[in-house]
Amino acid sequence: MMKIRVLAFGEVAQIIEKHNWEMPLVSSVGALKSQLNNDYPALQEIDYVISVNKKICGNDTLLSDGFELALLPPFSGG
């Protein structure tokens, strides 16, 4: 089975209640985000981004077996 590795940080990890896991491959970043928003409705309340192999990507980015994705909460700085 083809898989992707998912890392979650900050508020996203608190909502999902895990920081690091593998899941079956989905077709794109948008498909992953839809699945996560359905599984964890509270994610729809925050503006998180997804990076693929350490690059922030849009919803149309296609995924392949073994990719590493990070779910990143909103950033603030000063």
User: Would you state the CATH class?
Assistant: Alpha Beta
Mean of the pLDDT scores? 94
Q: Helical proportion?
A: 10-25%
CATH architecture: Roll
State the total count of DSSP E strands. Answer: 5
Please name the defining characteristics of this protein.
78 residues, alpha+beta, single chain, 29% strand, 5-stranded mixed sheet, Ubiquitin-like (UB roll)
Notes on the protein architecture:
The protein has one domain (3-72): Beta-grasp domain (Ubiquitin-like (UB roll)). It is globular, with a radius of gyration of 12 Å. The mean pLDDT is 94. A five-stranded mixed beta sheet has the order 2-1-5-3-4. The protein has two helices and five strands. By secondary structure, the chain is α+β, with helices and mostly antiparallel strands.
What is the element layout, followed by pairings?
Elements: E1 3-8, H1 10-16, E2 20-24, H2 29-39, E3 49-52, E4 55-57, E5 68-72
Parallel strand pairs: 1-5
Antiparallel strand pairs: 1-2, 3-4, 3-5
Task: Give a short summary of the structure.
The chain has 78 residues and is an alpha+beta fold. The protein has helices at 10-16, 29-39, and strands spanning 3-8, 20-24, 49-52, 55-57, 68-72.
